[in-house]
């Protein structure tokens, strides 16, 4: 997982609340056997509408999503985060996230920052005044800025640390790699081995 | 200095601690054996690829194809596209990451929980995981065996460890002697009916007592298999001479000095006499009847000699509502005698009851008999080896003469993921482990039963036990 500190990317004003994971990625896409390549599935039904915000030229290559309250509710599918990530999003902001979505985000390197409803509106207006403008996300200071506007966001300390260090669950465990190797060295000879294969 | 007395589960846990979790963080446990199948692994391998990681211990990992595999015409391409894609992905991943795989057509192919023990890979005192909830099966050997999710599969592939939260212990004491015609399947169905589908939540169950000690390894596997249906993290039986005898000489069982060292260690595993469990349950084996389910979860079970319960029998409003819904789905009326329920399909198979002993016990009942009119019976061995062995013993001939379909190995009608499904409204007596709505096909109705009840039911066409058969009584069997 890549470390996240400070980055700037095109921001989208996503004036919708209660965006559930079925909207983020419809169930028909869950049959796939990969963990990547879900970019086409993101908001699939909404994207059929040519006026949908992500279909506007200014917001092509968007990386920062500023959404209304209650983002990521509904089914616990991890695919919702995969789809956002595959599309190119590095950060999502909302005044309220569903817990499971927030947890899944942190594990996949997607920043899910909480901002107030008031700041959400301010950010929307700043972006809409200048479509295609970049937003700077600063995980060290916990701020997001558009032009001269800077607002604070909240993220739990543990998730922030993991993102700053670029540690996924496996990366976390591998910090104990020496202990794993030591353990392996004193494993008894009778314990099972699948290779070489005997039949 | 005297050590704190420990249970079997605690001993196995402690001997696998790589790092102790502090401040409520989970412990990091080493995993001795990782079983892989096609459904829950593709995204785990993809995750490894994405992060540029390798499989840490291919030599502790083994893959087999089971959930999606057809049980006949196995030399033809798999028709369903999703199923085929999953199988092809497993083959490709196994090759790329250097993992041993047993594919359709291979003699060691079969249901993952049948293959591990059969190869002698499952043994006492080890940790076993698999991206499948019925991994609890392997606990029959005194192993700590747990089902895991896809992201955990990826974690184990990459690190051979798993962060796990501590568990509580529950003793399931089954004392006495089972009557003829009553099996370990009836024990576990009765246990789940008693403690409920959530009764084991957070616990590792240990099955104990004279009735458990008397069971064969295969019968113990049937019990441990269904621990998950009581919501438990795992189920275990302490290893003993029966365990050692079963293992000895299997392809991957230890040999020579390693065997002696292993047995010496395995003998230290049973729960210390003064150890305490967080909870205890008691069941009398002497009075147990064959058990069958009437509803849509494995806890909705009754004696085969009983009747369909009424929602009014339940005090808890949730249980009552569940009963109303289950009766409607199952198309049953309260008060109907269980033995009056007619089925159109009998399924003998699944990781619960598809081992050679299960097939032998059914064959003994079916021999020389005729199937009831309008009933079809599928007999699906748990692995290609079980199938070969059954054929060597002539069991296939008994099954075919009886009129049953003798299939190739796989999960088959245990779940509707392959072509073996029930049609809407069809009713089955099934030796599998889940009777959930739609599990065996959309609108399908499932009664969970033992292999003996399955066989007797196929003969009579209504839910029956061997004691209901003339042949059984004539031969001095128990009535
Ligand atoms: S036989 Fe059924 S329960 Fe067992 S692994 Fe296959 S699908 Fe799961």
Automatic annotation (TrEMBL), chain A:
Coiled-coil regions listed: none
E.C. number(s) listed in UniProt: 4.2.1.33
GO MF term list: 3-isopropylmalate dehydratase activity
Family: Belongs to the LeuD family. LeuD type 1 subfamily.
GO cellular component: 3-isopropylmalate dehydratase complex
Keyword Amino-acid biosynthesis: yes
InterPro entries noted in UniProt: 3-IsopropMal_deHydase_ssu, Aconitase/3IPM_dehydase_swvl, AconitaseA/IPMdHydase_ssu_swvl, IPMI_Swivel, LeuD
Organism name: freshwater metagenome
Record pathway: Amino-acid biosynthesis; L-leucine biosynthesis; L-leucine from 3-methyl-2-oxobutanoate: step 2/4
Assembly and interaction partners: Heterodimer of LeuC and LeuD.
Top-level EC class: lyase
Protein name: 3-isopropylmalate dehydratase
Catalyzed reaction equations: (2R,3S)-3-isopropylmalate = (2S)-2-isopropylmalate
Pfam families for the chain: Aconitase_C (PF00694)
Function of the protein: Catalyzes the isomerization between 2-isopropylmalate and 3-isopropylmalate, via the formation of 2-isopropylmaleate.
Residue stretches making up the Aconitase A/isopropylmalate dehydratase small subunit swivel domain: 1-112
TrEMBL record, chain B:
Protein keywords: 4Fe-4S, Amino-acid biosynthesis, Branched-chain amino acid biosynthesis, Iron, Iron-sulfur, Leucine biosynthesis, Lyase, Metal-binding
Pathway: Amino-acid biosynthesis; L-leucine biosynthesis; L-leucine from 3-methyl-2-oxobutanoate: step 2/4
The keyword Protein transport is annotated on this UniProt entry: no
EC number: 4.2.1.33
Molecular function as annotated in GO: 3-isopropylmalate dehydratase activity; 4 iron, 4 sulfur cluster binding; metal ion binding
Cofactor(s) listed in the protein's UniProt record: [4Fe-4S] cluster
Reactions this protein catalyses: (2R,3S)-3-isopropylmalate = (2S)-2-isopropylmalate
Pfam families in the cross-refs: Aconitase
The keyword Isomerase is assigned to this record: no
GO biological process: L-leucine biosynthetic process
All residue ranges annotated as the Aconitase/3-isopropylmalate dehydratase large subunit alpha/beta/alpha domain in the record: 10-461
Gene3D superfamilies membership: Aconitase, domain 3
Protein purpose: Catalyzes the isomerization between 2-isopropylmalate and 3-isopropylmalate, via the formation of 2-isopropylmaleate.
Protein family according to the UniProt entry: Belongs to the aconitase/IPM isomerase family.
Name of the protein described by the UniProt record: 3-isopropylmalate dehydratase
Species: freshwater metagenome
Lineage: unclassified sequences, metagenomes, ecological metagenomes
């Amino acid at each position: 997982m890549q470390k996240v500190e400070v980055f700037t990317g095109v921001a989208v004003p996503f004036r919708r609340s209660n965006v559930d994971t079925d909207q983020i990625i419809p169930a028909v896409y869950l049959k796939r056997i990969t963990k990547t390549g879900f970019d086409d599935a993101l908001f699939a039904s909404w994207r059929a509408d040519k006026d949908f915000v992500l279909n506007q030229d200014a917001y092509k290559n968007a990386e920062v999503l500023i959404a209304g309250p209650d983002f990521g509710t509904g089914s616990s599918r991890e695919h919702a985060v995969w789809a956002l990530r595959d599309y190119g999003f590095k950060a999502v902001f909302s005044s309220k996230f569903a817990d499971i979505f927030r947890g899944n985000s942190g594990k996949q390197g997607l920043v899910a920052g909480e901002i107030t409803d008031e700041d959400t509106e301010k950010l929307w207006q700043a972006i809409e005044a200048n479509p295609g403008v970049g937003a700077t996300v600063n995980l060290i200071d916990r701020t997001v800025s558009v032009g001269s506007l800077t607002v604070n966001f909240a993220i739990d300390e543990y998730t922030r640390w993991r993102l700053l260090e670029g540690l996924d669950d496996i990366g976390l465990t591998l910090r104990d790699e020496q202990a794993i190797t030591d353990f392996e060295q004193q494993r008894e000879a009778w314990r099972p081995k699948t290779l070489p294969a005997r039949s | 200095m005297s050590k704190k007395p420990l249970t079997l589960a605690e001993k196995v846990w402690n001997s696998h601690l790589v790092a102790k979790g502090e401040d409520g963080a989970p412990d990091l446990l080493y995993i001795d054996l990782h079983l892989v199948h096609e459904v829950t692994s593709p995204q785990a391998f993809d995750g490894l690829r994405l992060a540029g990681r390798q499989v840490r211990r291919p030599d502790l990992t083994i893959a087999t194809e089971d959930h999606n595999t057809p049980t006949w015409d196995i030399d033809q391409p798999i028709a369903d596209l999703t199923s085929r894609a999953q199988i092809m992905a497993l083959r490709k991943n196994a090759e790329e990451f250097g993992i041993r795989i047993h594919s359709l057509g291979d003699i060691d192919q079969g249901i993952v929980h049948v293959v591990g023990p059969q190869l002698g890979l499952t043994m006492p005192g080890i940790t076993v995981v698999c991206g499948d909830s019925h991994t609890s099966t392997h606990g029959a050997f005194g192993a700590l065996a747990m089902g895991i999710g896809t992201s955990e599969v990826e974690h184990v592939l990459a690190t051979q460890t798993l962060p796990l939260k501590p568990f509580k212990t529950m003793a399931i004491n089954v004392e006495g002697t089972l009557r003829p015609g009553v099996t370990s399947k009836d024990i576990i169905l009765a246990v789940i009916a008693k403690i409920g589908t959530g009764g084991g939540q957070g616990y590792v169950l240990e099955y104990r007592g004279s009735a458990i000690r008397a069971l064969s390894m295969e019968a113990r596997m049937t019990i441990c298999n269904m621990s998950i249906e009581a919501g438990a993290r795992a189920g275990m039986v302490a290893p003993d001479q029966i365990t050692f005898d079963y293992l000895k000489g299997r392809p991957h069982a230890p040999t020579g000095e390693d065997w002696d060292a292993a047995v010496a260690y395995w003998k230290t595993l049973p729960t210390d006499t003064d150890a305490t469990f967080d909870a205890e349950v008691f069941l009398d084996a002497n009075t147990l009847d064959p058990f069958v389910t009437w509803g849509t979860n494995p806890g909705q079970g009754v004696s085969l000699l009983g009747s369909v319960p009424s929602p009014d029998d339940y005090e808890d409003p949730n249980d009552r509502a569940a009963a109303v819904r289950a009766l409607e789905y199952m198309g049953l009326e309260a008060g109907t005698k269980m033995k009056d329920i007619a089925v159109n399909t009998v399924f003998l198979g699944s990781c619960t009851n598809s081992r050679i002993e299960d097939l032998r016990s059914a064959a003994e009942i079916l021999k020389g008999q005729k199937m009831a009119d309008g009933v079809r019976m599928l007999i699906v061995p748990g692995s290609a080896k079980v199938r070969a062995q059954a054929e060597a013993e002539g069991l296939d001939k008994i099954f075919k003469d009886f009129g049953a379909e003798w299939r190739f190995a796989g999960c088959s009608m245990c779940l509707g993921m392959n072509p073996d499904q029930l049609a809407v409204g069809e009713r089955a007596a099934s030796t599998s482990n889940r009777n959930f709505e739609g599990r065996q096909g959309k609108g399908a109705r499932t009664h969970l039963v033992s292999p003996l009840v399955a066989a007797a039911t196929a003969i009579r066409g209504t839910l029956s036990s061997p004691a209901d058969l003339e042949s059984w009584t004539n031969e001095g069997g128990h009535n």
